[in-house]
Structure formats: structure tokens, C-alpha cells
Write a structure and sequence with these properties.
It is a single chain. By secondary structure, the protein is mainly α. It contains 19 helices and 11 strands. The strands form 5 sheets. It has a 3-stranded antiparallel β-sheet with strand order 3-4-7. It has a two-stranded parallel sheet with strand order 1-2. The chain is elongated, with a radius of gyration of 32 Å. The N and C termini lie far apart (80 Å).
Length: 505
């Protein structure tokens, strides 16, 4: 199937029973992209008919995820629209009337089979090594019997009457023609005993009322599609175009789960991923632009998106690739943009991953402008800003004694190197405390004390930063300032001497 040429109406219709899974969000991305491409409408609808599992926090997270990813919707909760309401629990009467009309037309029937009876039936079928399925016993219940059951307080459902013979087919935009034999289906519930509809009935009525032209959903719904087509036939309405997108698996080819990384959009947000990077990455799960291009703007994705390039095989979620792509997006940001994104993470409370609470908030943007060039090319996640830059804001650092020696250096040699480094640090004029001057002076010092530059620089780096891996040494020293550098080298010498004293004892 090629892309539609006329404006589409597509919907994202989640059930707020849990935090939205990243795979579920992927369908929203595809819907939004197709709507943008055709200048159509992207509709959000809340399918909350399963009231026993409804979760208000999950519903809040749904909208928060869409907002973060920039998936603005044209109609839906909070925005309204001409075919509302956009919450299924507010459309209950529509479903009840439709279900009863199907009973009146002979396409459905009332069923008083109890849950206990259904359980017993399935146990017998399993014991006989038969597939568990409803045996259509309700078809033969009279109106009087149904009424007696209703008066007795038994649960009354409405089931669609599935033809005993024949087949049903549909053309899936991804997989082509798919056919199901009706003998493989049993009569299924369309209206539950609490007069809430099942998904099968509700979404069809809503899609019809809202003029949905294309249904984009995960391919786990393919097996349910024949039921949906039967409801369409019974109601006398045309089905939309179906686009079933592939499952998302982990790199080990198992179902995506926590062990493969975060599973919700908001988790990625909180871990320091950029919305644009996640958007880009998710669109490539199951879809390809037709070449090796991977990093694309939203505008390019919208322009190049094509339904016929959606793959029919499962997509692989590669967390390392997502992290790489996020790093690309960070490097493509201006310094001011990066500061805007880093500061909210760095200004969090210390317990939530921010800088120590002793650091003043708000953080000085002028000082940040000096630091960003030192780490801009290194960052892959926004959360790394705190752990990469924390020592610039600390009053002092506390390096471990064992981290101070460089390669092939013992403690006496390290102590000698730091003593020499301290002496030079104290004598450099404040006006000359700049990266180029410092590097020239310390390289000369290394030659003077007959050490390799790397050997001298390594303990200085740990003394200054408290880390074995840090931004370029002399840029770091200049940013930290002469007074704090002197203090930190003195502290490192104290650490070494204390360690030596302890060892001697």
C-alpha cells in the first residue's frame, strides 16, 4: 500500500491501565507522522471501558508522554472536537444501543452463561485436548430463560453470532491479503454484564463516529481483526484501512521488557534522553526510509515516511544505538540549547540525581558557558551533565589514594610529581592561568623532573577532579581557577601522605 494522497484521520486510542509501553507509543508516532504528511487529523481517544483496571496516573502519563514527544493532537480530551466525547466511558449509551440493535437484527444474542460454567467448560476441553472455546450454548436460550436469569441476578452478556461456515478476509497495508476461516472463531462477547462494551465493539463504533480512515496498531491485533470485520458486517459499515506494524523485540529476540532497558517514554525522558532522539529512533523501529539514513529531523521523517516501507518482521530495540543517537543529537545542539536542557537535571535535588544541595541554585549560566565546550562532545545523556561537571562546582574533591598514581608510578614518585605540580601552580601568574600557558609550563616541568608528560598529568588530573577520566586537563584547571587548583593538589598530597603513614604503621 502506498501512502494515501488525501488527508487521513488516524487515532491513538490507549487504555489507561498502566504506564504506556514504548511499543504502544510507537503506533502513536506513526499515526502522527501520517497525519502530518497528508495534512490530516491526529485524534486521541481514551479507551477506559475496563473500569476495574482504570488507572488515573496511567492516563496522566499518556498525555505527558505525548506532550514530551511533541505529538500534538487535533481532537481529543482537553481539546474537544466535533465528534466527541473522546472518552469511551462517556459514550456508554451508544454501545448499549448498538449491541441491542444487533440482538434485534439476529446478529447477536443475550447469554446467561456464568463465569463458573465457562471455567468448567474450558477445563473439560483442556482435559480432552481440545482448544478452549465457547460452545455457543447461549444461542439456544429463550427470552424467558434469559429474563429468569436476569431476575435471579445472573450476569447477562451479549455475544456476536459468528457464522458456522465460510471465511473472512482483509487487505493489510503491511502484509497484504489475510484470510481467516470462521470455523476457528467462537461467539464472542461485545457487551459485558456491567453494560460496558468490549474493545471489539467499542472501538469500531468510535472509529466510525470519528471518521477514522486508517487504523495503525500492533500486529498482535491481527488475530482479532476477523472479529472486528464481522462486527462491521453486522452493523453494515465499511472498515477502515488496517496497518499492522511489527512487534518490538529485545536484542535477544525476546519480548521487550525491563531487562532490555526502559519500557516507557517517560523513563527515557527521566534518564536524560532527548525527545527528538527518541522520536527519530522509534520511527526506525519497523520502518525504513529506503537507504542507510538514520539521523533525521521530524520534518524529514514526515516527508519520507511511507507505509509500504513498514517491515512485516519484528523490530529490534537496540538500547546502545538509542544512546548513540542521543549523543548525536546532543552534539548537534548549540551551547545555549544544551545548557537549557542540562540545567533542569543539574538543579534537581541531590537525592534525585542533581548536584550537591550545597551548590547554589540557579546555576550560573555564565560559568556553564565556560564548561560546556569541555564536555559537549562527550555527553550521550543529559543526566551525564551532573556526573561530568560536578567537580567544577565542588568546594573540594576527595580522590582515592590508589587512583592518584599514573602508569608505572609508585606512591613516592606520585608524591614527588604532585609536589612539583603544586609549586608551579602557586607561581603561575593569575593572568597566565590559561590552558595554553598551563600546558606549556607543565610540559616543561615534566621534562625538568625527568618524567613523561602523561605520568605528570595523570595524578594532577585526579587531584583536580577526583576522577580518573575527565575533560582536558588544562582547560579544566583554567575553569576551576588557580586558588581551587592549589587547594586540591594540597589535599591530594595529604591523601597520599595519610595513606603512606597508615601503611607504615
Amino acid at each position: 500500500m502506498t501512502n494515501p494522497t488525501s488527508p487521513v484521520r488516524v487515532r491513538y486510542a490507549p487504555s489507561p491501565t498502566g504506564i504506556p509501553h514504548i511499543g504502544n507509543i510507537r503506533t502513536a508516532l506513526f499515526c502522527w507522522v501520517l497525519a502530518q504528511q497528508t495534512e490530516g487529523q491526529f485524534i486521541v481517544r481514551i479507551e477506559d471501558t475496563d473500569r476495574s483496571r482504570y488507572d488515573a496516573d496511567a492516563e496522566k502519563a499518556l498525555f505527558e508522554s505525548l506532550d514530551w514527544l511533541g505529538l500534538t493532537w487535533d481532537e481529543g480530551p482537553g481539546k474537544g472536537g466535533p465528534v466527541g466525547p473522546y472518552v469511551q466511558s462517556e459514550r456508554q449509551q451508544t454501545y448499549i444501543e448498538a449491541a441491542h440493535s444487533l440482538v434485534e437484527s439476529g446478529h447477536a444474542y443475550f447469554d446467561d452463561t456464568t463465569p463458573e460454567q465457562l471455567h468448567s467448560l474450558r477445563e473439560r476441553q483442556r482435559a480432552a485436548k481440545q482448544p478452549p472455546r465457547y460452545d455457543s450454548r447461549g444461542r439456544h436460550r429463550s427470552a424467558e430463560e434469559i429474563e429468569e436469569s436476569r431476575q435471579a441476578g445472573l450476569p447477562i452478556t451479549i455475544r456476536l453470532k459468528v457464522p458456522d461456515f465460510g471465511s473472512v478476509s482483509f487487505n493489510d497495508a503491511v502484509r497484504g491479503k489475510i484470510t481467516f476461516e470462521l470455523k476457528e472463531l467462537d461467539d464472542f462477547v461485545i457487551l459485558k454484564s456491567d453494560e460496558m462494551p468490549t474493545y471489539h465493539l467499542a472501538h469500531i463504533l468510535d472509529d466510525k463516529a470519528m471518521g477514522i480512515t486508517h487504523v495503525i496498531r500492533g500486529d498482535e491485533w491481527i488475530s482479532s481483526t476477523p472479529r472486528h470485520l464481522l462486527i462491521h458486517q453486522a452493523l453494515g459499515i465499511d472498515p477502515p484501512e488496517y496497518v499492522h506494524v511489527p512487534l518490538i523485540l529485545g536484542k535477544d529476540k525476546s519480548k521487550l521488557s525491563k531487562r532490555h532497558g526502559a519500557t516507557s517514554a517517560l523513563e527515557y525522558r527521566d534518564q536524560g534522553f532527548l525527545a527528538d532522539a527518541v522520536f527519530n529512533f522509534m520511527c526506525l523501529l519497523g520502518w525504513s526510509p529506503g537507504d542507510d539514513t538514520e539521523v533525521m529531523t521530524r520534518e524529514e521523517i514526515v516527508r519520507r515516511f511511507s507505509i509500504d516501507r513498514i517491515n512485516d518482521s519484528p523490530a529490534t530495540f537496540d538500547a546502545e544505538k538509542l544512546e548513540w543517537m542521543n549523543g548525536v543529537y546532543i552534539r548537534n545542539m548549540s551551547e545555549d540549547e544544551l545548557i537549557d536542557h542540562l540545567l533542569p537535571f543539574m538543579e534537581r535535588p541531590e537525592a534525585d540525581g542533581g548536584l550537591p544541595n550545597t551548590v547554589d541554585r540557579p546555576i550560573d549560566r555564565i560559568y556553564m558557558k565556560k564548561l560546556i565546550p569541555l564536555v559537549h562532545e562527550r555527553l550521550k545523556l543529559l543526566t551525564e551533565g551532573t556526573e561530568t561537571l560536578d567537580f567544577f562546582f565542588a568546594d573540594n574533591v576527595n580522590p582515592a589514594a590508589e587512583d592518584l598514581p599514573g602508569r608505572k608510578m609508585d606512591m613516592p614518585m606520585t608524591e614527588m610529581a604532585l609536589e612539583a605540580a603544586l609549586g608551579l601552580c602557586k607561581t603561575v601568574s593569575s593572568s597566565a592561568f590559561e590552558p595554553e600557558n598551563l600546558e606549556a609550563d607543565y610540559r616543561a616541568l615534566a621534562e625538568k623532573i625527568e618524567m613523561k608528560p602523561g605520568q605528570l598529568f595523570s595524578p594532577i588530573r585526579v587531584a583536580i577532579t577526583g576522577k580518573t577520566f575527565a575533560p582536558p586537563l588544562f582547560d579544566t584547571m583554567a575553569a576551576i581557577g588557580q586558588a581551587r587548583c592549589v587547594e586540591r593538589i594540597e589535599n591530594a598530597l595529604s591523601v597520599i601522605r595519610c595513606a603512606a603513614s597508615t601503611t607504615a604503621e
